Amino acid sequence: LAQASKPPGPSSPNAAKRLYRNLSGKFRVNYTSFDESSLAGRGEKEKLRKSYLFQSNAALFEAVELQDLDRVQELLKQYSPEELDLNTPNSEGLLPLDIAIMTNNAPIARALLQAGAKESPHFMSLESRSLHLSTLVREAEQRVNELTAQVVNEAPNTDCSEKEKQLKAWEWRYRLYKRMKAGFEHARVPDAPTNVHLSVASSSSVQVTFWEPLSVNSAVVTKYKALRAIPPVVASPLPCLCSAASSSGELKNLHFTIHGLVSGTAYYVQVSAYNMKGWGPPQASVPPFAIPSNWREYDGRAPRRRGQAEALDHLLGQVKTVHQHCVCHEPCKNQPQSRKHSVSKSLKHLFHAGSKFLKTLKRGLYLTAIFYKDDNILVTHEDQIPVVEIDDTYSCLLMQDFLWFTKVSCMWDEILWLRQCVTVSQSSCSCILQTRFKMLLAISQMQGLLGIQDLGQVFFEPVKDKQGNILIVTLKEVKTNQTFESVRWVPICKLQTTRKSVSSPEEPTALDTLLISVQDKLAYHQRSSHALSSGLYLGYLKLCSAVDQIRVLVPEQLPNILCHVKIRSNPNISREEWEWLQKMASVEEPIPVEPEADTPRNHLFQELQVAIKELMTLVNIPLQEAKDFRLYSQEVLDFGGQVSFLLLLPPSDDVCTAPGQNNPYTPRSGFLTLPLQIFELGEKR
Predict the structure, then answer these.
(1) Fewest CB within 10 A of the end CB: N or C in the chain?
(2) What is the rounded radius of gyration, in angstroms, for the C-alpha atoms of the chain?
(3) Given CA atoms 225, 231, 233, 236 in this order, what sign does their dihedral have?
(4) Please, are residues 592 and 648 in contact by the beta-carbon 8 Å criterion?
(5) What start and end residues bound the annotated signal peptide (predicted)?
(6) What are phi and psi of 347, to 5 degrees?
(7) Which residues contact 215 (CB under 8 A, 6 or more apart)?
(8) What DSSP assignment string belongs to 71-130?
(9) What does pTM read for this prediction?
């Protein structure tokens, strides 16, 4: 019993040293053996991986040979082209694409082409391909004859059953090679592509779009080329194509751009298709030629926004330089260190006893921040969306202060500097300046409690209630897999069902209204970050004014852009097209003038007709009223070079609906009106 009660540790320091030394030696041996085994394990894993990839390559060849489209698509989705060795020939010198096109399996060939597959480089000519196929057929036939003789002459046994399996496999391969050879012999060069359209892409490029050849009897088309030519200096009925250059197009999009052209020079373009039998006849484009140009060349104007961002950054830097030695910064020089410390806390101290998040609202102006991830929202332990107070005695002009707040949201990182600059005249400042200083304080408080500087995007209007509460709402999506201590994500639907309302359904508080409509606000935030695809658009500009603001009509699905329809995929307006638009704008009385056929002007005229009809239907305006509408002819609105807009304007008296004035044509559901300043900020984002 006495021995059992002794502690299990060593009885002396020397014993402890011996125990440590022995254990250390054992651990050293174990570590060495572990390292060796791990290296050996890695080698085995690498061998298994290579074997697995080799099997996947063989599986792809088998799926193509069996014409199993689903299996081919599954393998292309599961593995990269490098892992599949997509462009490495097999032992017969064939690639998966070769087998697909010579068996004329167009769906599998398209899937392989989209994944980056190529034809075998061994087939340099029609003769080499024909000779290779004949050799494969002859060798397969010879192998079938040999195996047939062995099966017939040998007695039934295990080896004989194995030979029978080999015979069946070679018979199937013999039929495959014969089918491939027949497919090659019966194929012919492809017909010319259809609907070849040529347009001006920029001052130094043209864009070619086309459709596949209509014929279904020829082999699969694997690539295209465009022949471009400059008309000869001497007058001639046809342009010279002797110095044509070829450009490969993208099969999956059936369009490509020819770069490096000379502005102001006419270029004729023809497009040809290629299959395993060679190049087909060329098809001339419509219009027959294009002159690289841009609408700005009409009057030589520079882009409106050129250098604006740099100028604003330079101006802000100058302002900061002037304020560096301001007296208001003296007591705050050591604040960045403490600020950094508070940020490093992240959200783990969000809900300690000293937290200043509000649980209930009194009459006043408040700031709330909504952070969401998927269908979850960040809340306090009291299941409350984070709220801080701005001003409990607010009585100024809300819209003016709100619009100022939205501009501040573009400078979340500069709040401390802005607050320091405003404190200089705090004692003698006006009501407006006091309110804005309190806004900066509330922002700093929210940033400090959350440990995050970027509070996100401001929702386009405050949330109000009849008790006099006003909530300014910011929204931010958390996309990273971030974990926060002492904070929990709650499903939005659960928060809406479990939170107890403190107001009546007839007169909900601002917090209850926010919670009820939070999903709509999140949808607005997500939609406002969507971007348009590349192209030329027709936008509809409609404003309505109130006492303290001007609002602009936008679609709910894309609130950061005007109501619009797409005219075409090419965003560029050529000089010739712009000249025609200017001519139409200068005509006082509308007259039905159609441009000549097969010209860029005629194509733009037809595209505008279709777009205007579609846009009028979209905004619920009778088409007969569109005769009084005008195209904005001062400029083309350019957004980053990939998206451009032509504006359609109502009559001058109806561009902006005045307060109290009825709008005879109310858009259908799916639209909303944003304050003009909010719309401008959203467009810049």
Answers:
(1) N
(2) 37
(3) positive
(4) no
(5) none
(6) -105, 10
(7) 190, 191
(8) HHHHHHHHS-HHHHTTTS--TTS--HHHHHHHTT-HHHHHHHHHTT----TT--SHHHHH
(9) 0.75
pLDDT class of 317 with cuts at 50, 70, 90: confident
> What Cα–Cα distance (Å) separates residue 212 from each residue in 99, 262, 272, 280, 283?
21, 29, 10, 12, 11
Cα 558 from Cα 674, distance rounded (Å): 12
How far, in Å, CA of 611 to CA of 614, rounded?
5
What pLDDT digit, counting tens, does each position of 82-114 carry? 888 888 888 888 999 999 999 999 999 999 998
DSSP 606: H
C-beta of residue 648 within 8 angstroms of C-beta of residue 539:
yes
> Could you tell me the strand order of the sheet in which 550-555 lies?
656-657, 543-545, 550-555, 671-675
Strand 463-464 versus strand 469-477 pairing type: antiparallel
Dig out the tokens for 510 from the structure. 């601002």
Mean pLDDT for the chain overall:
80
What domains are there in the chain, each with its CATH number?
Answer: 47-186 (1.25.40), 197-293 (2.60.40.10), 364-512 (no CATH), 535-586+601-683 (3.90.79)
- Residue 495 phi/psi, 5-degree rounding, is -65, -40
Report pLDDT digits (tens) over 456-483.
999 999 999 888 899 999 999 988 776 6
Structure token pair of residue 357: 């998040």
Please determine, for residue 338, whether its predicted confidence score (pLDDT) is greater than 50: no
Residue pair 346/487 in contact by the 8 Å Cβ criterion: no
CB 254 within 8 A of CB 277: no
| Statement: residue 244 has pLDDT above 70 | no
Could you tell me if 359 and 376 are in contact, meaning their C-beta atoms sit under 8 angstroms apart?
A: no
* Count, residues in the chain: 685
